[in-house]
Design a protein that fits this description.
The N and C termini lie far apart (58 Å). The chain has three domains: 85 residues, Winged helix-like DNA-binding domain superfamily/Winged helix DNA-binding domain (Arc Repressor Mutant, subunit A); 45 residues, no CATH class; 187 residues, Vaccinia Virus protein VP39 (Rossmann fold, 3-Layer(aba) Sandwich), CATH 3.40.50. Helix 3 crosses helix 4, helix 5 packs across helix 10 and helix 7 crosses helix 16. Helix 12 links the parallel strand 4 and strand 5. The chain contains 17 helices and ten strands. It is globular and about 70 Å long.
């Protein structure tokens, strides 16, 4: 490398790259606070760090250093005497907050996710996912064999459904829908929100048997349970028939094109002639339009499972290969709704 003159100041470019490459420290600190559950024992009233440390079972000095860093992010506020309180943003790290993102922060900062994304360069070299090379099994097999990882992943996906994906509940007009089949709907958080917001709808949650076994508590609520049933199966084989709306929320991005077409073709065969398929996805918009989060999530899909975030054109190609056609894309905050109908 060439050496700059000792008297020259650090360049703006070097300072910017330093900021970017150390941004992982920021997410790691937030995830550590989420994993330790510090927000759950705090409030908007200042509390001495020693008391917080005793409640969550950490070293007091080390916790002070973590919270001091989090104060730079304005998720906690430091007061004299090494005391800390939660800010409005910090409240979203509480497990019981209506806008909680604690589960997703725990997943993203955990060893499974972290060790996978460290190998992103290898995924880019080969064009193939690296999860199996890192963890010894493909991602979904690994999850089924590691209950704690699957539990944390489920909570992270619940947070995404409840906070980001749920925007589609308001952005999309369900007025002429009747039976919504949530394909690969996890524990049913999004379906519960759809049914609660639109009381004329009925729903089916369709998931793998091991996931269905963990879904009752989410959907077993007055006003929802009587309008919803849960079915287990494999969406590569078939999906429940007779729905007019097939909802796949951040499902298709987990799969390459061939597998995605298999899933969509099964939905096409199962749905009513006047039905539709709704893909709730972070859409990568073409041209110069910014799609910041979608483009970085796309790299995560590459490293984890060989999936991808897609453009409207790529969604149209998937639909065409599945016997559907792209009808429209409804933009929204968080995710868009990509609507397909019979070709």
């Amino acid at each position: 490398m060439s050496l700059p003159p000792a008297s020259s100041p650090i360049s703006d470019s070097a300072a910017r790259i330093f900021e970017l490459v150390t941004s992982s420290w920021v997410s790691t600190a937030v995830s550590a606070a989420a994993e330790l559950g510090v927000a759950d024992v705090m409030s908007e009233t200042p509390m001495p760090v020693g008391e917080i440390a005793e409640r969550v079972g950490t070293d007091a000095d080390a916790l002070y250093r973590l919270l001091r860093a989090c104060a730079e992010l304005e998720i906690v506020e430091e007061s004299p005497g090494r005391a800390f309180s939660l800010t409005g943003d910090g409240l979203a790290l509480r497990e019981d907050a209506p806008d909680s993102m604690r589960g997703y922060a725990r997943w993203l900062g955990g060893p499974d996710e972290g060790s996978t994304m460290v190998a992103l360069a290898d995924a880019v070299r080969t064009g193939e996912p690296v999860w199996e090379a890192v963890h010894g099994a493909p991602v979904w097999q690994y999850m089924s064999e590691n209950p704690r990882s699957e539990w944390i992943f489920d909570r992270g996906m619940d947070d995404l459904s409840a906070q980001l994906t749920r925007t589609m509940v308001q952005d999309y007009d369900f007025g002429d829908c009747g039976l919504v089949v949530d394909v690969g709907g996890g524990r049913g958080v999004l379906l519960a929100l759809v049914l609660a917001t639109h009381p004329h709808l009925e729903g089916v949650l369709f998931e793998r048997p091991e996931v269905v076994a963990r879904s009752d508590s989410v959907l077993d609520r007055p006003g929802i349970a009587e309008r919803c049933r849960i079915e287990a199966g494999d969406f590569f084989e078939s999906v429940p028939a007779g729905g007019d709306t097939y909802l796949l929320a951040q499902v298709i991005h987990n799969w390459g094109d061939e597998d995605a077409v298999r899933i969509l073709a099964n939905c096409r065969r199962a749905m009513r002639p006047d039905g539709r398929v709704l893909l709730a996805e972070m859409v990568v918009y073409e041209g110069v339009e910014r799609s910041h989060t979608a483009k970085f999530m796309d790299l995560s899909m590459l490293a984890h499972c060989g999936g991808k975030q897609r453009t409207p054109t790529q969604f149209a190609e998937l639909f065409e290969a599945s016997g559907l056609r792209l009808n429209r894309v409804v933009s929204g905050v968080g995710v868009g709704v990509v609507e397909g109908v019979l070709a």
